[in-house]
Specification:
The protein starts with 5 loop residues before the first strand and ends in a 6-residue tail after the last helix. The longest helix has 19 residues. The strands form seven sheets. It has a six-stranded mixed β-sheet with strand order 13-16-17-20-22-21, with helices on both faces. A four-stranded mixed β-sheet has the order 1-8-7-12. A three-stranded antiparallel β-sheet has the order 2-6-5, covered by helices on one side. With about 425 residues, the protein is an alpha+beta fold. Helix content is about 35%, strand content about 25%.
Length: about 425
């Protein structure tokens, strides 16, 4: 059985000690994280006797022990809340097939991330088994007592010339021992040493008999590129996706070489962008507005030798339009904003400059910065609308709004819902 994972939070410095420990890295583990940081720029930074993590959350294999990195939610983050937030966001804004699980399940948030992902994989296998494992015709050759398929004449009149009781046959057999099920069995075998809960061990023993007649394969990742989805195999997609991720994380042969696989990691900046995009997209469609994500524009054009060319590309997260006209522009920020002494939001100066550039390039006077709402912020932050100085006749207004990441509905703050009143 594998050791318990080291659980920590994003943007945390993990101490490095000679022998490691429950809350510290061994030297070899720190070196492993450093190598992953080289393969995934920005993942971590090596310091003196510590490794500082960035905004990536999820799981990393340290070569025998996993590290579980959770979102830092609130002033005093805890694993229960961070795990719940990450799972909630993954269910709505990632390609992980987590839809079969209850988003608010207490057992999910109490379990380590690895066991949550293994349970999701097992649920997909159970669905496949209910519909029956995929069977494919495979060409077989054997010496039989009766003719089946076609006779292999060369073998029949040479090797079996004196054996009139046997017929050398070549035939097609419908079997479950095919690449699809071999790949699933590889995932089932890979998770076995890492399961700690009795409930998951029981499910594993219930699933494994269905794959007893399936061949083991030494290098399952090499098989992945040869899998072709047809109408019958389409239902295998979620389970195959889980196996691919599980093998990347747990299977030693997939982590060889100079660039170890980064594990099962999620950039929280990108994940929050997708959550906000989906939630604000629903809100915009209710008003008949269109939404463009990562819409490209330019700050100004340079005039040189009678040539105009665009310069300084801008790419706001969200651009809302009504009847073809830009109504307002928003950027999502995965961070807790500073608050003034009167509890109004004080955005970072760099974010102000960025939104001001959007307003200038798009001639849009309504802007928004969207932050995650956590228990600390909801108790203190007031609705905030800033008016930015401008040389234009009307100054742009900047709304500081929130999306509640602590509930499944991802509710919008009053300041965001009130944006139509500012237009």
């Amino acid at each position: 059985m594998s050791p318990s994972p080291l659980s920590t939070f994003e943007h945390t410095a993990i101490p490095v000690e000679p022998g490691g420990g429950p809350f510290a890295l061994a030297e070899a583990e720190a070196e492993h994280l450093t190598l992953i940081g080289a393969a995934l720029p920005g993942f971590c930074e090596r310091g003196y006797r510590s490794v500082r993590l960035s905004q990536y959350c999820g799981l990393v294999n340290l070569g025998g022990r996993l590290i579980e990195i959770l979102p830092k939610v609130g002033e005093h983050p805890d694993a229960l809340q961070g795990r719940g937030v990450l799972l909630r966001m993954l269910r709505v804004a990632s390609d992980l097939p987590l839809h079969r699980q209850d988003a608010a399940a207490q057992s999910d948030r109490n379990a380590p991330l690895l066991e949550i992902f293994i349970r999701a994989f097992f649920e997909e296998l159970l669905v496949l088994l209910k519909g029956g494992l995929l069977r494919r015709y495979t060409e077989c050759e054997d010496d039989l007592l009766a003719v089946r398929g076609t006779i292999r004449l060369q073998r029949q009149f040479s090797t079996l010339a004196n054996r009139t009781d046997y017929v050398a046959c070549r035939y097609d057999e419908l079997t479950a021992d095919n690449p699809w099920n071999r790949f699933l069995k590889a995932g089932l075998n890979a998770v076995r040493p890492w399961i700690q809960s009795l409930a998951l061990q029981r499910i594993w023993f219930e699933l494994s008999p269905a794959f007893e007649d399936i061949s083991d394969i030494p290098h399952p990742r090499a098989m992945l590129k040869d899998l072709r989805y047809d109408r019958q195999a389409a239902r295998y997609r979620p389970a195959v996706a889980w196996v691919e991720r599980i093998l990347n994380l747990l299977s030693p042969d997939l982590r060889s070489g100079n660039n170890p696989a980064p594990g099962l990691l999620f950039d929280m900046n990108r994940l929050f962008e997708r959550v906000v995009e989906q939630r604000m997209g629903q809100w915009a469609s209710e008003r008949g507005w269109s939404l463009a994500a990562q819409d490209q524009s330019f700050l100004f054009a340079e005039i040189n030798d009678a040539q105009r060319r665009p310069m300084y590309r801008l790419r706001p997260d969200l651009v809302f339009r009504s009847h073809g006209r830009v109504t307002f522009i928003a950027d999502s920020k995965w961070k807790r904003p500073a608050l003034s002494s009167h509890h109004y939001v004080v955005p970072d100066l760099a974010d102000i400059y960025q939104l001001h550039a959007y307003a200038t390039a798009s001639r849009c006077n309504t802007l928004a910065l969207i932050y995650p709402l956590d228990p600390h912020t909801v108790a203190k932050a007031k609705n905030t609308v800033l008016r930015l100085t401008s040389s234009a006749a009307s100054s742009p207004r900047l709304v500081a709004g929130f999306v509640d990441i602590t509930h499944d509905q991802f509710e919008l703050s009053d300041s965001l819902r009130g944006i139509p009143n500012l237009l």
